[in-house]
């Protein structure tokens, strides 16, 4: 069952202030959009105790998983047989025997075992790279992936190195390296980028965080923009001639980044592919 676990950070490339007087001054921020997996979002849920009195499509919240919603997929004589994730939530912890609370339905006794998406909210800072025999090795500070099999998105490379940006399946990794396949001539460099666990889309849009990061994924707060401040306006667009369009729903809090294929919103659970997306936003200065 497809579900969404994405959010978006804003990477700041520059900002400037403009205005007539101190009461109306504004801060203009520009940079790129970085989608990543929500910290503490659910990865899987499974039945611990099935309970009774449920129907297919009943929904429920889960203790220890704020904002998450589960769904009864199949039942036998009112007893749940399988369950799935509707919304992955955030800030959760892996739990065995987590209690559920009905959202839709009147069943009772269902408890759930949850796992949490690995490395949600983390950004690996790539400091150098090399390609040998169609294998790309990324040297990354605070590497978040071990072993292999994870889908990651690499971004932040510019100019003649944009071919390094993309979505990859990890072949292997250590505490300081990530190895992925890439068909390309042998090459190497010290150009920097970032890698994140590939997120998935949430119907209606993924939450936008205005806690800015720099192009290496490190926190980059702007003194004139408070942590609770929302933009007067924000424009987002692809600069890579991709098949996707982007817009921000500023009528809700948090603001939501919507991704569209043409004019149609992508579906719930769609893996968010690598793209180069720019933003420009205006904030009222010194609103906290």
Description:
The chain is an all-beta fold. The chain folds into three domains: 6-38 and 199-284, no CATH class; 42-116, no CATH class; 124-197, Elongation Factor Tu (Ef-tu), domain 3 (Beta Barrel). It has strands spanning 6-18, 26-37, 42-49, 59-62, 69-76, 79-87, 98-104, 111-116, 124-132, 135-141, 151-155, 166-169, 172-173, 177-181, 187-189, 193-197, 206-207, 233-238, 244-249, 256-261, 264-265, 277-284. Strands 9, 10, 11, 12, 13, 14, 15 and 16 form an eight-stranded antiparallel beta sheet that branches. A six-stranded antiparallel beta sheet has the order 3-8-7-4-5-6, with no helix packed on it. Strands 1-2-22-18 form a four-stranded antiparallel beta sheet, with no helix packed on it. β20 (256-261) and β21 form a beta hairpin. The model has no long low-confidence stretch (mean pLDDT 91).
Salient structural properties:
288 residues; mainly beta; 6-stranded antiparallel beta sheet; 0% helix; 48% strand; globular
SSE blueprint:
Layout: E1 6-18, E2 26-37, E3 42-49, E4 59-62, E5 69-76, E6 79-87, E7 98-104, E8 111-116, E9 124-132, E10 135-141, E11 151-155, E12 166-169, E13 172-173, E14 177-181, E15 187-189, E16 193-197, E17 206-207, E18 233-238, E19 244-249, E20 256-261, E21 264-265, E22 277-284
Antiparallel strand pairs: 1-2, 2-22, 3-8, 4-5, 4-7, 5-6, 7-8, 9-10, 9-15, 9-16, 10-14, 11-12, 11-16, 13-14, 17-20, 18-22, 19-20, 20-21
